[in-house]
## 1
Amino acid sequence: MEVIKINGGVDVDLEPGVAALGFFDGMHLGHLALLEEVKLCGQKENLKTAVLTFDVQPKTFLTKQKEEYLMSVDDKIAFTKMLGIDYFIVLEFNEHLQNCSAHDFIESYLRPLNFRHLVCGFDYTFGKKGLGTSQTLAKYGHLFSLSVVSKKEYNHHKIASTHIKQLLKKGDIVQANNLLGRPYRVTGRVVYGKQLGKRIGFPTANIDYGSYLIPKRGVYAVNIVIDGHAHLAMANVGLNPTVETLDKLVLEVNVFDYTKDIYGEIVQVEFLKYIREEVKFASLDQLIDQLDTDRKIIIKGETPWKI
């Protein structure tokens, strides 16, 4: 798969293609429906397959507010490559794109990228103030044909990144994973923390989670993927109120039956099940007893999506 990053005008010469349009945060089951349509159209019409997206959520650029993402751009690239897509095209969002009308977006990007067929969701919007829609794209039939994928639902809820974020914030990991079609995954580097877990017999890997959305505070059953191998583990998302209340949420992972030093390593944490809320215990002994109970529950319990 070829990764193409565009900052400014289009200066690449691509073979005729079919492209999925969207931000694709999470690459959930709704997004997968678009990508499956792209692959079908590519095979049927003998076209290259592509994903066209932005490096950041446009509303984040517009409001200058920090956004929590379900996936990084690198995550999306790896996932799309796994699906066998030919091109992953990233438009670096800037003031030009912010002020680009729907017509100019089509003429400046979709036409030069040599797309012959486009695939988008029923609620896709583009261009300045999001005024462009699938109906706008349909008016350009002389440039490309169009497939509009209908709303996808799960348990009467639209499958959407916003809804998945709400589920994660509530600790409903199982339902969020159902909508994603796989465990919610956070990728980050193992960094030095305050060594609090090690002092009480539960050494943890402190994960620098960057701009990822972090689920509700509490204890989770997780897989931690180290060098491509998954290990069952216990994660804590919180502020460590029993020992020392922190000013920023930490993601700490206690890996079962694993003793290698992984400081500095890039790992993936896959959330499997919410175990309990974070609690301020009256003593360290109570905390240790509870962590031992949590670990036993995770080891003995059923953990959906376990690799």
## 2
Amino acid sequence: MTTTAEQLSATTLLRFATAGSVDDGKSTLVGRLLHDSKSILTDQLEAVEQVSLSRGQEAPDLALLTDGLRAEREQGITIDVAYRYFATTRRRFILADTPGHVQYTRNMVTGASTAELAVVLVDARNGVVEQTRRHAAVAALLRVPHVVLAVNKMDLVDYAEPVFAAIAEEFTAYAASLGVPEITAIPISALAGDNVVEPSAHMDWYGGPTVLEHLETVPVSHDLTACHARFPVQYVIRPQTAEHPDYRGYAGQIAAGVFRVGEAVSVLPSGRTTTITGIDALGESVDIAWAPQSVTLRLADDIDISRGDLIAPATDVPPVTQDIEATVCHVADQPLSVGQRVLLKHTTRTVKAIVKDIPSRLTLDDLSQHPAPGQLVANDIGRVVVRTAEPLALDAYEDSRRTGSFLLIDPADGTTLSAGMAGAAFAAVAEAVTQAADDDAEWDF
């Protein structure tokens, strides 16, 4: 079985998230995408029409397609992350409609953590507001490679080009200062459908793509041959049967990169080196496997390997450490404090740990960096230093979102406390946020 690098790199799937301030129209945009791309069932549309009529609305409220919780429908807001799956002839999509309220910022972190693109909505009447900058900062921290600024409700400002241009210029400058690599601005009306799926007849001054066209064509890099190959061991297979008396395999899902038979690999954290003698996938032996396939690796040497160990190419191993400096997004209601004992889950490995220090906090109310806060509360983003009881092999998050991330867990009840991103690069992002606030007083933080 042979596979070319082009076949490995090809993708037909885009994960994206929507974000923005309250009432900017996130759920309506998602509903419009689903409706106009014919990705909803007839009974779903009928249910939305019935609820809309009961509220006295003449047209279907497309936001109801994503606001599925009763509390969301009653309040007219998004609370939880709503995941939707749809497809066009050009690409498949997994979208996450995330909340706009400040108290649900942690849910935006959840939705954007695996996204390759974020759509940040802005109400054309209000322009860039505090929550807009907050979501841009979260997208930058999570290393989302593509950001779309959707300037919504253009119908309420008479489709005026100067309004769009001013908002696009302000947001682009701010997001670029955070290190967002690519920003695309699109003027839309989610309610009327302008520039969502079909081009708008009211904005002939705009010559760019619609939202759907951009989603279908934005380049999503999956050059797996260039990734750091990582294989977290999930299970050791030793059937010890008469048919397979000497079989020993290590099963799991490839987190990143490509593995080949004959390749020299290291097993971490022990550092022992061996060679891949076989790869089993779906009951067949193959010569090559790539992320995110679930496979079983067979190795030349009988090494002590267990769940949680990491297999990587011998020439490209991540650092092994017990002292982890990282940025965390705190998602629990209970605070995270210096000296607190936690569990740290990294890929398939869970170890005991202690929070040694919290050097700084990026307060989301004013996007300023505050030193030595002592603890983090819900929705806070901050720098932490964690000491683990056992060594771990972590990549920097900017190099690998999969093997550079981890969770901090309450050992008492298993509650997830914080989502962590390893590496020191995020301090620079926090500093950029603070510097941007200092340099532009008219933003009035």
## 3
Amino acid sequence: MRDKVLEKYGVSFGEVELEPSRGWYSIFPFKLPQKINFKELNCSLKDNESIVLARINIGNYKDRALDMDALKQICYILDFFTVHGREIILRFVYDDEGKGLQNEPDNIEQIQEHMRQIGSNLIRFSQGILTLQGIFVGSWGEMHSSRYLDPESIRKLMYTLYEATRGQIRLAVRKPAQREILEELNCPKIMRLTGFYNDALMASDTDYGTFEEDDEKREAQRDYVSDCCRQLVEIGMLCGGEAVNDNILNDGENAAEYLRRLNVTYLNSQYDSAVLDKWKKTGVYDEISEHLGYRIELESVKFGLKEMLMGKVKITLKNTGYAALYEPVVMALHNEEKRVSAGKRKKIQLGLGPGESCTFLFERKKLSGGGEIFLERVRDGERIQIREV
């Protein structure tokens, strides 16, 4: 759709190479206290991905506190990705071999100590951390195969992590049942921060145990995930992970429909290759790529009698992505001379849920110089593309 009103003023919707906080990610595994070759790491970054998953193994410290070298390495890792413009999905693990019980600490207090040590070092990187997955335990940090997954331990570790990061970072658990356990903490802020990471999306009817076996309970839990991820509170709750095990559940439109239902924001671009290759062959890969997280489309440009009398142009946008745009945003016009934001009415849009629309008003005279229009995140000015369809 090419709008004639805007075209008259030489105004277009600018393109963004990589949009923030959505899309595909690759995994970057680290094991402390091993030294890191950052030149080699730089070569591994993908130009078409704005997100990375940094999986940091602290298993060598299962029976002792992290030393200064380990804490410095964590900061070096976070600083590297920040400097290179990548948002970070962060996961700390004791195990990367599928031997969670064997490799985790013998007591919960050791885990809590690690959380407090690490948390104090994450605060200054909080703006660049998309989410912090898990509570350090289980095989691959996936919150299964661990002695610390009873309700009391989950509450204790999640609260420790929340306090250690001062409530400034999104958190995530594997199962909706694990999130429901947190209700007994009577801490609304934790609930507003805690989303989901599901590394077995569409692998089976239950996503390999992420959801209940009982059909009715399983459907209720999926609705629960969706309801949580549609809430535009605080910095929002995310859902993302990996699609694994090639089967009918992740065929074509089945996959797209499921990802939309769970409001998925990010997916692993490396795993499962059989599933990803199937999506590419059937054409659904591009559809999924375009709709992970938010997708902001131009719904209409209105310059009727009412707008004419006000000297305004009304631009309406719609989020057609799988998930919400969780960030407060403004609309701005950029040209060679200046940047002009939309008028005070609806100047700041406090997020936009999937399927929802919002409007911005531009003064007509301010469009006369032409330029490109973007949405911009309030907190950092990152641009979000408005797509004409």
